[in-house]
Amino acid sequence: MVIRDKIFSTITTVFKRHGGVTIDTPVFELRDVLTGKYGEDSKLIYDLADQGGEICSLRYDLTVPFARWLAMNPMIQNIKRYHIAKVYRRDQPAMSKGRMREFYQCDFDIAGVYDPMLPDAEVLRVAKEILDSLNIGKYTIKINHRKILDGLFEVCGVPADKIRPISSAVDKLDKMPWEDVRKEMTEEKGLDPEAADKIGQYVMKKGGKDLLDDLKTMTELTSNASFAAGLADMELLIDYLEVFGVMPVLSFDLSLARGLDYYTGVIYEVVTEASAPPSGKPAKKGPKPKNDDPDADRSNDDSIGVGSIAAGGRYDELVGMFANSAKGRIPCVGISFGVDRIFSITKARMTEAVRGNEVDVYVMAFGGKGFTGLVKERMQVCKTLWDAGIKAEYFFKVKPKLPQQFASAEKNGIPFAVVLGEDELAAGVVKIKEMGLPEGHPEKNGVDVKLDDLVNEVKARLASKGLHEEKHAKAVEEVQLEAKDAA
Amino acid sequence: MVIRDKIFSTITTVFKRHGGVTIDTPVFELRDVLTGKYGEDSKLIYDLADQGGEICSLRYDLTVPFARWLAMNPMIQNIKRYHIAKVYRRDQPAMSKGRMREFYQCDFDIAGVYDPMLPDAEVLRVAKEILDSLNIGKYTIKINHRKILDGLFEVCGVPADKIRPISSAVDKLDKMPWEDVRKEMTEEKGLDPEAADKIGQYVMKKGGKDLLDDLKTMTELTSNASFAAGLADMELLIDYLEVFGVMPVLSFDLSLARGLDYYTGVIYEVVTEASAPPSGKPAKKGPKPKNDDPDADRSNDDSIGVGSIAAGGRYDELVGMFANSAKGRIPCVGISFGVDRIFSITKARMTEAVRGNEVDVYVMAFGGKGFTGLVKERMQVCKTLWDAGIKAEYFFKVKPKLPQQFASAEKNGIPFAVVLGEDELAAGVVKIKEMGLPEGHPEKNGVDVKLDDLVNEVKARLASKGLHEEKHAKAVEEVQLEAKDAA
């Protein structure tokens, strides 16, 4: 949870940097609100039992609840909103890959009627800032456009009612070979094999701005209105993303389709090298291109894995589906980060142990024969430290043994002990002992300080270790999670 | 959500100060796990539809899931755990009082075999630190002991099988008059009226250490083993709470019973003056006692309202109910804060408006005839600010009008504008303008700065307003939420 907290705070910082405000929508939605929004995945929605009252389901994502909320609040015509919360899917969990029935999503969305591609560019810039701040290694933002896909399918002769299922088959190209996808399209979904082959000729294409220039020359495609509109969007977006410095991590990928029904424009998905490359497909040997190398061709880097850690796109019709008036038809674009997958990657990349808790001072006591345990005195010293904002604890026994107390402090990696003795206390003195000092260190056995000076002495020692009262946690996490690029 | 975030961070800071670590348990529990743990409130549990697989319900609180988790992880024999998450109840919502079907709880629990009352005292100290840090006004921690209550009921002649229902009736004494409670006990729950009257004679008692001394003289009660054990616990606890400075906010209240079945020892509940005093019962006139006045008699202050904002107690048997072996029978004590109620109180006490977002700089452009809108230039300046960790935004139009841009900045109370003009940009200059300066102020029309110096100039201005890049949020919140005691 220490790592997860750090991921949340990194993401939240970027969301706020871009003017995001948070809105909390309920975990329940009326079942009708969720129906028909998730394509083939609708079977994964959790329903609540009918115990009287409304028929509800658990939210499947944060996007549909946000759209429903916007439609219900027509005085809000534009907003940059973020939301960090759990969503629920009746899936087979695969813990090691961070796929669970209940998991966190961190969403950022821009709603409002604006000039084309400006909010879309900002969402992708937000993605890059977040991904650069997390310790996840090399990543790629794959991008495509629903209108490009729809146009392409039209040109290839896919009937209108088959466009969504065929799109969903194409989306599996990152997980299975073309032959299997083709089989799904022709055998399962009844597509004309000729149309399938034509699709295959296009959807393997990926690249950067070069692909854009390439596609502009293909008149068969550009003469299709939908394709042309999508391509114009993409050209403008790439223009803006160059300003925002996002292009080096982008791959324009015609096979990216995204299964959800509600996308209408740009779609994207973030994959990382660390997110489990398909087994049986060896990682490329030799030096790997770096994120910050704009000349590196990332589009064909087959070391890039399958699991996406973030995804999103433009959904201009979804809010309108819940709205009563034209005023409620607000176009939106957004992205959703899967914290559990990011967590799996981050954890696997961590080199240092995470401390058990964040306590800085363990207050203990010792004494000879007739030792009372000094429990109230230990409590009093803790109170003094807590009052000063210092994280402290003591052993919950009236008469604990000294080794017990040290063991408890060591278990959690607590850096300092304050040791109380009866004679010392009578003289107004306690001992501060830094844990884990080597034999022979001048302070190995601790230093006596006046009880009245204890808070200042502890603060000075925490500061000299780069720790500060109540900032310790952050400091530790930042050191632990410092990005160490494996390349 | 800005206020709610601040409440979360205040609470988390205190939890960590006492060595708390967080654990995230799932929102689903097997239905059997929740059955029989919540007394009369069990009817409020939400069930999931049976869609195949396990029969699940949504968590009703965070305590039972924690106990189940502890039992399933027998290598963990002690832990100070906190958890901030939502729980679910099929209740009639009363939004204005912060009672909802879905709401946040913030729980802190200490699990482990320890010397009596040491963890209990620490939990109450944690409560006091949190309550003192929140802007909620005067509050009281009401405290009682299950064994004291059970003993008292025995002495009054309540049959063993009626102790829980009678206890639950007594618990309503803060919401209804004694006559109604007596009626519930005798008419609804079939208690002998003589026993009811005897109970009435005791449960109206409340006080501080004086009540403890008073009870110790009542041999009718102290000769009961359960009562005596409870009273000994309470004496020790009060002794420790004096060391921790908690006594001034404590009220030992024999009518406090808490409905949940799983408590076995000390129980407590926090009420505040601000949490809606019962209507028809006028608030006491004249000066009110202050929290920090140890001599103030708080126990009979009838301005103290009914809604509890935190509650908890000791539950020594709950973990054992889920455990397979004796090793799994871990005693626990904990407290749960109701953030939504705290939020309602805090919001009502706030005197300043909350800003729309946290953005510090709005980047805008203006120009005369043939004005291009400078959209890429605005994007470039935003990128520069974001790269420096400064919160910035711009208007999502290619050619926006200047008043539109100012209106958008003003709407969110953004303190600075950076204004781009074509001629100025050509000379490498932009204008920084502090929003809302009065007429006649020397910088009313802004100051020209070199584009290369922009980041430093903005940072200096933010710092001079007490704002710092990415610390702004915290600063604003702290000012807004600064406790202003109404007394």
Unreliable residue stretches of chain A: 95-99, 276-306, 471-487
- Give the class-level CATH name of the largest domain in chain A: Alpha Beta
The helix tally of chain A amounts to 18
Find the count of extended strands of chain A (DSSP E, 2+ residues): 16
Distance between the termini of chain A: 27 Å
Shape of chain A: elongated
CATH superfamily of the largest domain in chain A: Bira Bifunctional Protein, Domain 2
Report the C-alpha radius of gyration of chain A, rounded: 29 Å
Give the second-level CATH assignment, the architecture of the largest domain in chain A. Answer: 2-Layer Sandwich
CATH topology of the largest domain in chain A: BirA Bifunctional Protein, domain 2
Number of domains of chain A: 2
Q: Strands of the largest sheet of chain A, in order across it?
A: 1-4-5-11-10-9-6-8-7
Largest sheet of chain A: 9 strands, mixed
**Residue-averaged pLDDT of chain A:** 85
Structural class of chain A: alpha+beta
Oligomeric organization of the protein chains: homodimer
Strand content of chain A: 15-25%
Q: Into which percent range does the helicity of residues of chain A fall?
A: 25-40%
GO biological process, one term (chains A, B): histidyl-tRNA aminoacylation
GO molecular function, one term (chains A, B): RNA binding
Protein name (chains A, B): Histidine--tRNA ligase, mitochondrial
Catalytic activity (chains A, B): tRNA(His) + L-histidine + ATP = L-histidyl-tRNA(His) + AMP + diphosphate + H(+)
